[in-house]
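re: the backbone from monday

yeah here it is again, tokenized this time
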């Protein structure tokens, strides 16, 4: 049996770096994995999914504001608008930005669908009597139709990309190497059906973003 003085002498002379190194090494390996698993588990909860929806939604709102501001260049004339578009798509970071934007869009939609499905599954039988919300309620047309407006946007966004991003590549008269996107915009919005479709889509976007922003 080790005497008390000798025991404390060994404790005081313990080389923590050498003796605890294997345990520290294991902790360094497992701790990041533990954090990742814990974070992943949180993201799959109802609160986690709503947080993802809020963050991705705010990011998409930021993109829409930037996109709208860029499109206002069209009022400066065809050459200015075409040059702006050309500089934008010529930036090598555009592919990374598009990938991140796509990830935000898909993540927002998937989590929104799962949250809606989970909420409806929790109450499989709908209310037989729906009372009107009082003035203190946050329930509105926007909040009641979020899944519908989201599905409409899911149709609108690909059609918008097909029309303008992957549409006819007219060459600019000022510079043949620059795409004449101004001409394409003018052609599309001379069609009354296209104008009506975009006006309705923008109304849906407005309702969807309003509730999303107020709820974030």
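seq for it, each position gets an aa:
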């Amino acid at each position: 049996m080790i005497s008390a003085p000798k025991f404390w002498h060994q404790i005081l002379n313990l080389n923590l770096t050498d003796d605890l190194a294997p345990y520290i090494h294991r902790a360094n390996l497992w701790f990041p994995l533990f954090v990742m698993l814990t974070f992943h588990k949180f993201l799959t909860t109802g609160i986690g999914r709503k947080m993802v929806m809020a963050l991705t939604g705010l990011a998409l709102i930021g993109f829409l504001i930037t996109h709208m501001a860029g499109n206002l260049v069209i009022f400066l004339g065809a050459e200015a608008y075409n040059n702006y578009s050309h500089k934008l798509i010529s930036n090598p970071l555009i592919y990374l930005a598009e990938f991140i934007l796509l990830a935000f869009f898909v993540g927002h939609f998937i989590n929104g669908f799962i949250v809606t499905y989970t909420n409806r599954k929790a109450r499989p039988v709908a209310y037989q009597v729906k009372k009107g919300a009082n003035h203190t309620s946050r329930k509105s047309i926007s909040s009641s139709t979020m899944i519908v407006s989201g599905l409409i946007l899911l149709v609108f966004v690909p059609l918008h990309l097909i029309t303008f991003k992957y549409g006819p590549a007219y060459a600019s008269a000022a510079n043949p190497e620059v795409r004449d996107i101004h001409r394409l915009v003018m052609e599309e919005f001379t069609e009354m059906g296209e104008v009506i479709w975009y006006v309705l889509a923008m109304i849906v976007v407005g309702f969807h973003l309003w509730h999303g922003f107020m709820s974030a």
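Confidence is low (pLDDT under 50) at residues 7-12. The radius of gyration is 28 Å.
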